[in-house]
Amino acid sequence: xxxxxxxxxxxxxxxxxxxxxxxxxxxxxxxxxxxxxxxxxxxxxxxxxxxxxxxxxxxxxxxxxxxxxxxxxxxxxxxxxxxxxxxxxxxxxxxxxxxxxxxxxxxxxxxxxxxxxxxxxxxxxxxxxxxxxxxxxxxxxxxxxxxxxxxxxxxxxxxxxxxxxxxxxxxxxxxxxxxxxxxxxxxxxxxxxxxxxxxxxxxxxxxxxxxxxxxxxxxxxxxxxxxxxxxxxxxxxxxxxxxxxxxxxxxxxxxxxxxxxxxxxxxxxxxxxxxxxxxx
Length: 280
What we know:
With 280 residues, the chain is α/β, with parallel strands linked by helices. It has one domain: Alpha-Beta Complex (2-enoyl-CoA Hydratase, Chain A, domain 1). Helices cover 39% and strands 15% of the residues. The strands form two sheets. Strands 1-2-3-5-7-10 form a six-stranded mixed beta sheet, sandwiched between helices. Strands 4-6-8-9 form a four-stranded mixed beta sheet. The termini are far apart.
């Protein structure tokens, strides 16, 4: 007989004193809310680290069966993606942001704020309450279930600032023409378009969004937690890319982001002007 061990998890192990994320638990559901309204719920090195801590805790807590992810309503966004001004300030000082600096204890190229970065295998529901762009969109797409407010939209604006992002993940998660439109044309898709394309499960009025997410959470929690986690594990495995492709994608993003055009794109964004591309 294999040896079995009781969980040593304690509620006191949950992340405390978070500055950029609101983390709560109600019954078997964890609520993760991006709380940076002054930047439309954008993400930076500290926010990535706090998100990763939340995913880690959700994975450890045996009483949590699923999670709901959203952005604070005051930010009028699910997440506007990477905090480009934070990046611009570091670049202007000749520094990498902490999560892109190999000498930093929080180094994790790409941010490390995605559920997959903490190897989370419990179901997540995205409550998309506003725009979801770049890494904000990637976060929503890592949630297996998604509800969207009627006035929300998704987009990917990496190439506008000379970055690559993770287009391979969008090509896997979305219809390929939709992914190409977002990544190459910097286009956007509204809520009804997302519903028609099967990107989200439901579209509801903004004041019904969390209620709709909680209805899905109730259905998830009615199932076997072990079986649900196995389903998520298989979802992730079926969408996994070969390690060589993942490494190549990160290298492409790094080389492009640290090129002259990458620096110019970020400066232009902060200065609210059109970038002048030099192709180097």
